[in-house]
Amino acid sequence: MKLQVLPVVMAGGSGTRLWPLSRAGYPKQFLVLSGNQSLFQQAVGRLAGLGGGDFAVGAPLVVGNEEHRFLVLDQLRELRLDPAALLLEPFGRNTAPALTLAALQAIEDGADPVMVVAPADQTVTDAAAFTASLQSAVQVAAGGSIVILGITPDRPETGYGYIRSTASERGVARVAQFVEKPDLATAQRYLAEGDYCWNSGMFVLKASVWLAALEAFRPDIAAATRTAWAARSSDAKFVRPGKSEFAAVPSESVDYAVMERCPGSDFDIRMVSLAAGWNDLGAWDAVWQVATKDAAGNASVGDVLLQDSRNALVHATSRLVSVVGLDDVVVVETPDAVMVSDRSRSQEVKKVVERLHAQHRGEQTLHRKVHRPWGWYDSIDAGPRFQVKRILVNPGASLSLQMHHHRAEHWIVVSGTAEVTNGDRKILLTENQSTYIPLGEVHRLANPGKMPLEIIEVQSGSYLGEDDIVRFEDTYGRAPAA
After folding, report:
1. How many domains does the chain have?
2. How far apart (Å, rounded) are the C-alpha atoms in residues 247 and 233?
3. Are strands 418-422 and 470-473 parallel, antiparallel or unpaired?
4. How far apart are CA 218 and CA 3, in angstroms?
């Protein structure tokens, strides 16, 4: 019988250090930062490659945020992959509760698969080496060990945690100690001593082993997460733990809750080395490291002009960006924000996001272009008592049946066919046709065609916030007013 393997992709997190490209509503794991797929899609694809031989690899199990559920589904559809389940956290409680939800789902039908747990925000350049290391880790974990993937460091990195290991046998070492992100002098010492690897954040272990270790080291997290799991609800592939029960779960990482406590305990913890061009794209400096560069060490995306500059990363999204006479900088432009940083200090971008959050600024949460389950909208202009949006509705999709208390709307069809519900009337509009939705009127916009529908919407009124929506019917299970 083949060994049952369950890929688990941890797709939570907000990616604050990659602001302004990464936002809370569209975080880095769903961005295309290398290659032609998002980091999440790359992670799912790599784990799917474990199949064959002695392994039976199941459909991926994804743990993520409730607000990102349609991003996950859309990106899985692009890969033509059907997930085993999407476990939706109502709010973040760090990785230990997230992994516990995955383990509880894994044993639901009496199985006990080897879980291959990977974050959704990493890159790997050597897929064959990655697969070989993970297959070795799965074999070890099948015997009851906890296995972590360790990266041999090639520089004194201060942005990663480290693992100290003892002598290895056939590429498998015994973990002696986990250590926190070091200062530069300590990182240089780790590199010189050679006994330390970077902590990749990838784990391989049986579902029952994780639950037993959590019960031993953090019974409070185990009990609270089981309570939330018992109160779960299911809707197609979506599985939601009880919201109020999940609020009571302590927030803790996998490392702090279990991994750091394993050395010297009854739980055997091993490390398999991974040499596969791994990178955790945690900050803009890491993006620069994996990017294609010119002769001067510059990496650029979009409409960029560089003059007499070296070792720079410039990312332009919506307009021309020019850089003159600057070395070792990061410049990231989006339609509503620009970030400029010394490349060596790109970890500190998260402090800017903290200030935006403290000031209740919208740039911390959403882009100007906002993705929705039915398509997207782009707020292209706004002023006192008016706002203009460009809206795209996917074929066969529709917005909710809704009304607004404080605004009226004018819709102009740019391309495609619109089915408009306006009070008790339903009409079809095509290119260059328009309609008017009075304040307080119940209405809906739908795309009955096979091509994308694009419209321009002009809103006018005393209040134009997104929370002025009363929903009567919604295909996507969203709240009546949100």
Report:
1. 3
2. 16
3. unpaired
4. 29
